[in-house]
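4.2 Preliminary Data

To establish feasibility before requesting continued support, the project team ran the inverse folding procedure on a target of 86 residues. The structure was first converted into the token representation described in Section 3, and no sequence information of any kind was made available to the design step. The complete token record follows.
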């Protein structure tokens, strides 16, 4: 059994791509619409078994930070979130 097998696990990129679309659209949408769309990502991550519990907690933390930061900081958290989702 390869001990390092789990370290290089890749996820299906569709959740990351969906987040990228939501983030791009969020620049033109209201704050409420943006947050509602982020809930779609949360639900997708909840049901995706390829993410470990620690990865899910990190994703939820980044979404929380993204939801609570100012517009000038959003890009920083969005880029981090995309990396974790991939």
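Position-by-position output of the design step:
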């Amino acid at each position: 059994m390869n001990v390092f097998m789990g370290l290089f696990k890749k996820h299906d990129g569709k959740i990351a791509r969906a987040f990228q679309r939501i983030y791009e659209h969020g620049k033109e949408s209201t704050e409420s619409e943006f947050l509602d769309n982020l809930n779609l990502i949360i639900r997708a991550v909840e049901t995706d078994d390829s993410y470990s519990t620690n990865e899910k907690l990190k994703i939820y933390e980044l979404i929380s930070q993204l939801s609570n930061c100012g517009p000038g900081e959003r890009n920083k958290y969005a880029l981090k979130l995309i990396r974790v989702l991939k």
